[in-house]
Amino acid sequence: MKRKSIPTELKLAGVLALLMAALSILSPRFLTLDNLTNVIWSVCLIGILSSGAIYPRITGGIDLSLGSMAALMGIVADLFMNKLGVHWIPSILLTMAIGGSIGLFNGFIVAKIKVPAFVVTMAAKTYLYGVALVVSQGAMLAILKPQPFIAIGTGRFLGLPNPIYIMLVLVVASQFLLKKTAFGRKVMAVGANEVAAKLSGVDPDAIRLASYAISGVTSAIGGVVLASLTQQVFAAAASGIELEVMTALVIGGTSPVGGKGSIVGALLGAIMVAFIINGLNLLNIPAPFHPIVTGVVILLALLLNEGHLSIRGLGLGRSAGRQASI
Amino acid sequence: METKHANGDNLLTCKGVTKSYNGPIVLDNVDFSVRRGEVHALVGENGAGKSTLIKVVTGATGRNSGTITFDGEQMPLEFSRKDAQARGIACIFQELSLIPGMTVAQNIFLAKEPTIGRTRIIDKKKMNHQAQALIDKYKFPLKAEAAIDSISIAQRQLVEILKALSDNAKLMIMDEPTSSLTKTEVEMLFEIIHTLRGEGISVLYISHRMEEVYALSDRVTVLRDGKLVSILNKDMISPAEIIRLMIGHSISEKAVHHRLESKRSPVVLEVENITTVGKFENISFSLHKGEILGLGGLVGSGRTEVVRALYGIDPIDSGSVKFLGTPYVPSVKASIAAGIGFIPEERRLQGILATQTITSNIGIANLDVLAPKGVVSIRKELERAQKGISLLNVKPPDPSHLVGNLSGGNQQKVVLAKWLVRDLKLVFIDEPTVGIDIGAKEEIYEHIRKLSAEGVSILLVSSDLPELTRLADRVLVLRKGRIFHEFKDCVLTGEKILRAASGIIEEAADEA
Predict the structure, then answer these.
(1) How far apart are CA B502 and CA B298, in angstroms?
(2) In a domain, A321, yes or no
(3) How many Å lie between the alpha carbon of A57 and the closest alpha carbon of chain B?
């Protein structure tokens, strides 16, 4: 393999540019500040959640509990602030700590008891949803105060919605952690080859524990932003969002088997899906068709990223070194 | 041993079989035959071409030229495993081809289950009954309805044999079938092989264990460097002679006393009576500064287990270890911090991060230096990677190249590089040159010698006999988890090592 491969992020940026060009030609409403802000807004939550969910994914696991977790954490934040009278800042910090602890518990079962992450977090998704129902008494609770809390999601800074800044900070922090720190290196190594990582002095169990804890913390942040933005909390507030997060990760080049991934890619992936949906709306294509398009895009992205297809002529490619030998 | 079928006609005849994998010739014009109803042993050193010959015969890989005739029929140049199976060639794997969640009977009749009448519904009763009848016929200690994951490895092998029998196999190929069996299980397997032979089934038996080859086979074929050396009637030879034929008139002899000065250098690693139950017993040795100590023995003799335990991967039950004069309890982290490196035997499974760059692969064992406070110095990381690349002449010399896309030799160089860029005092090296080309092999030897000259102590595990004779200052041969013999101050030959590994001590010891 002599030719240098183009980074996934660059490919995605290219596809995104083409998509934007096409949409701006097809619909005059596309390239307006209002429309673009709307699209970015819908990307924010996915971006925030992806910035943490990418860690379990790169170790070769998955966190499917993040939707239930985000909803529960919104309810918990409301409980602290409006039922227990805690100031909003410690309330948010406590919520993040609880999210991290639940993530740690998931990680413990995955790393130490060796239960597949899919099963562990699927179970967590279910029981956390139950806990959220119990705590909220099955109701949809409105949050009207305190004002600074509401401003987190609804306020604007320099004309742009606050959640965009929160997302950007998290994405940059996550990218830094992944690409520039020893921890990030170890996460990648555990996902690529756990045994080799261990022999090089990495403790795979500790890395797994931390990865799920990080995903728990970002889920809590996502829950807080969502609660503040919508000014309401309920158990099903973020239901199904884990699939959108996984979609963004897959499109962004995070390998479903671990060892590879980029949060910038995931963000571009989330934007792409949002643009596609936005485009379909602008072109008046009925909503039932949207999931069909998204599904096909996921499949194409996966095939491209895993090297089963190549962009050049869409010919059949070969994936690097995945064949088993006898 | 009687050889009643010794004059029978040939079941399998290979003539002039040649095979090369993009360049190097691994089978060179090999003539080979197996008679009906004989036990035929195939022996040779690692890399002699045994596995390739088996792959060609079972259809796992094609051949470049030569003819293969099986049961009177000529086999085409390319045929599949299925073709081979259909004609009666069966390969007994250890456990790989059985489905763990299914029963013995289900595995035996997989894809050929008896059905109810003309329907496609499986007749479970009939299937279990037929399986049990087959088991009873051979008096195997098995139950038709037992699940595969509830029975021992030896029993799984029996299931494999039954599966082959139910396919009407005429030739059963067994590749190192005893490597994970206990003594009584081995005896049972031998009895079964005799029974099979009595029924006119041919068995092709591949083993490194001379005593087994000698006890079982009617004839022995010796391969060396991809060529047929000879086919012998067992009565005509002794185990020691078989070993001599396997090694050949080797140029790999080396006098090992020319580096006696290493004995006067300080002791780096002192191992006293370490034992881990079921793996090794009472291992004691000392390793001096700058010394290359070879660890020989057959696969399964405990070599790898000893180095894994000393590096801190597996626990040691009893005994003591001293590193640089102070008591040392091995753990991977402590080992790395103390300047100990480990090059594992399975490059792909244990050594490389295939999806990552050369830089990341070298970096992962150097994070203590590259990121003392947690943030990786990208500049230092790149410098280390470049240092490793130029030190070991990795090709292509591009730090951002994915290691999974490198050749085997270059992958191994990267695995070495991640340790060699460190300040090492001691390195454990397990099978450093398996499956890599001759050029890269020589380069790796050069590095091992250079390391030793720089004062790094090396514990080298290898099945490659010339590798041990060429590199090691001393060689310990392990057998069944114990140190069987130490070669020092003598003319070291591969033949002597292999004889000791096979438990033949008289001649091995006399020159020591």
Answers:
(1) 8
(2) no
(3) 15
Nearest in space to B50 (alpha carbons), one of B222, B259, B193: B222
Q: What is the pLDDT of residues A44-84, one digit of tens each?
A: 999 999 999 999 999 999 999 999 999 999 999 999 998 89
- Is A71 within a domain? yes
| Nearest-CB residue to A201 (from B96, B336, B371) | B336
Per-residue b/e over A81-100, b at no fewer than 16 CB within 10 Å?
bbeeebebeebbebbbebbb
Name every residue whose Cβ is closer than 8 Å to that of residue B83 and which is 6 or more positions away in sequence. Answer: B59, B75
Quickly count: other Cβ atoms within 10 Å of residue A105's Cβ: 16
CATH of the domain at A132: 1.10.3470
How confident is the model at residue B249, as a pLDDT? 58
In our burial notation (b when 16+ CB lie closer than 10 A, e otherwise), range B342-351 reads bbbbebbebb
* DSSP 8-state class, residue B375: B
Report which of B278, B267, B284 is spatially closest to residue B320, judged by C-alpha positions. Answer: B284
Spell out the alpha helix ranges (H) of B138-260: 153-166, 183-198, 210-216, 239-247
Output the six-digit token pair for B119: 């329907």
Q: How far is the C-alpha of A109 from the C-alpha of A115, rounded, in Å?
A: 6
Q: Which of B60, B342, B360 sits opposite A188 (nearest CB)?
A: B360
Residue A20: which pLDDT band, with cuts at 50, 70 and 90?
Answer: confident
Given an 8 Å threshold on Cβ–Cβ distance, is A192 in contact with B356? yes
Q: How far apart are CA B318 and CA B335, in angstroms?
A: 19
Q: H helices within chain A, ranges in order? A: 8-26, 33-58, 66-78, 88-111, 117-135, 147-154, 162-180, 182-192, 194-199, 204-230, 241-251, 263-282, 290-305
CB contact under 8 A, A182 and B344: no
How many DSSP H helices and E strands does chain B contain? Answer: 19, 22
Domain limits for position A140: 8-311
Smallest CA–CA distance, residue B327 to chain A, in Å, is 21
- Contacts of A306 by beta carbon, 8 Å cutoff, 6+ apart: A255, A319
ipTM topping 0.85: no
**Residue to substitute from B336, B355, B381, interface A, most A β-carbons within 10 A:** B355
- Position A297 in a domain: yes
Contact B273/B318 with Cβ under 8 angstroms? yes
> What CATH number has the domain spanning B10-247?
3.40.50.300
Cβ-based contacts of B59 with chain A (< 8 Å): none
**Superfamily name and number for B250-339+425-512:** P-loop containing nucleotide triphosphate hydrolases (3.40.50.300)
pLDDT at residue B96 in the model? 64
- Give chain A positions within 8 Å (CB) of B332: 198-199, 201
> How far apart are the two ends of chain B, measured CA to CA in Å?
35
